[in-house]
Design brief:
The protein has about 400 residues and is of the alpha/beta class. About 45% of the residues lie in helices and about 15% in strands. The protein is built from 14 helices and 11 strands. A 6-stranded mixed sheet has the order 8-7-6-9-10-11, sandwiched between helices. It has a 5-stranded mixed sheet with strand order 1-2-4-3-5, sandwiched between helices. Helix 9 links the parallel strand 9 and strand 10. Helix 1 packs across helix 14, helix 6 crosses helix 13 and helix 12 crosses helix 13. The mean pLDDT is about 95.
Length: about 400
Amino acid sequence: MEIQQTQDWIRTALSRLGYGEAIVEQLIEPQLCLAVQIPVTMDSGAVRIFSAYRVQHHMAVGPTQGGVRLHPQIGLEDVKAEAAIMTVKCGLAAVPFGGAKGGIVCDPRELSFRELERLARGYVRAVSQTVGQAKDILSADGFTNSRVMAWMADEYSRLRESDARAVITGKPEVLGGISDREKLLYQSVMILIQEAVRDSGRSMSGLRVILRGFGELGAYLAGEIHRSGGVVVGLSDRYGALYQEEGLDVETLLDRRDSFGTVTRLFRTRMGHDEILNHPHDLFIGATVAPSLGEEGARALGGRLVFEAVPGAVDPGAYPILRQKGILTIPGVLSSLGPVILSYYEWVQNREGYRFAPDHLIMLLQERMIDSYHRLKESLPEAGGDPRLATFMVGLKPTAEAIRIRGLL
């Protein structure tokens, strides 16, 4: 989401909630923007300079928290927008954080293992004065996987040993991270799907599902839907789509799926991405942003529920069409709360010297995901039925209230 669009949503949501211009202006722009240059010695011996950023949106609720994204085209405006979205996510998840985000301008696929490590450590050194377990928590995001976070945690421990344990999340379990974090992230999405289906008065058993995207998340969801009694009638990847009214053979498709998450090119009878939407189904799940569900696809949809499993899986222009058709859409900001919640619990267990049992952690994750869903659903009438506006209203209210009560005007 672009910065101007994000700021427009912030202004509209806060105005709808009745907050004055003083609070709106505080949340339109972040409290802190840091731009740094990171020198890295490449394997060739040459020194390359990387631009990087850290943005802290607002600290009224507590320390800020957010991932560090590695992307060749990320800029300060992108990071500002994502930091604001993180504030929304933290408020929606009811965790005591404000939003933050980091970005490093690079293509990690072009870096060697050691070059990536030097870059990760250099980033921590560059931002070390502005982060801390009670100031700003760095978390995993995209290419910053658990190994990258381990390097960051190690580097920070050399700079601030007494403050190091809880300042980095998304770490390997042996360094205080969450056990089976990736599996829990996928489970958080499935928890939300099951609750939305249940809340709509349906059951997973016999539910006809069209799934767009067959990457790691899409494959996990296909398997879980199949095991819970749902029927995956449609599936699409970058090459096209498959549809079978009596249900696709999910186990065979999972077995034949390649490492890039594609399977449809093995079949001669594949359809167009939007063509399958004309066929009978109850639930559409967007688990990829390429291609996303656009206006044409939204007009073709015949189901009653759309689930944006990843942010960007539904185009902004599709939302009004879905709303006009009476189709409930679960926005990507809500479905992507898993990393926020798990980072919070990792921060808690690191600060307390305590480790959550896996079953307990799943229960806590489920409670927060379901609670977030219902708070969003309850706010829909006030938001005129727009789930995106409702997301911003619910997510921004804790920070706006903290600003008002603390007198930060």
